[in-house]
Design brief:
- The chain has helices at 9-14, 62-84, 89-119.
- By secondary structure, it is mainly alpha-helical.
- It is elongated and about 55 Å long.
- The structure holds zinc ion (ZN).
- Residues 18, 20-21, 23-24, 45, 47-48, 50 line the site of zinc ion.
Length: 128
């Protein structure tokens, strides 16, 4: 059983699926680059009814996740470019910022997906 198979946290996190049933979509538009709908999530899972807004301002906590992931990518990419590939300092800065900006919509959704998975666990489609 792979870590990306249904029933595992990674499946829900990386495929943006409901953490409770792993079937319903966490975001209305599955494409994170449809920026107008980036934030739009259903109120609850269309498959099992799991509430996606556990409390008002629930996803503020996801910002910490986003911050940590972005910092890892930022410093990791910068270090690889600068020390691994010998790219000039200024160019490494620009490339790193561009990579983070391009990945930002995915990071945003990933952080929300991780955050809700901290609190909601897989229980299949059974009522809760
Ligand atoms: Zn569900």
């Amino acid at each position: 059983m792979s870590i990306f198979s249904k029933g595992r946290k990674a499946y829900s996190i990386f495929f943006f699926k409901c953490p409770h049933c792993h079937e319903g979509r966490l975001f209305i538009n599955p494409n994170p680059y449809a920026l107008r709908q980036l934030y739009e999530m259903p109120e609850a899972c269309e498959e099992c009814g799991q509430d996606f807004q556990l409390e008002p301002g629930f996803y503020w906590g996801g910002m910490y996740i986003s911050y940590v992931i972005a910092a890892f990518i930022l410093f990791g990419t910068f270090a690889i470019l600068l020390f691994g590939l010998g790219v000039e300092f200024r160019m490494a800065e620009i490339i790193t910022v561009v990579i983070v900006l391009v990945l930002w919509p995915v990071l945003f959704r990933l952080s929300r997906s991780i955050w809700i998975n901290v609190f909601v666990h897989y229980q299949g489609k059974a009522p809760w």
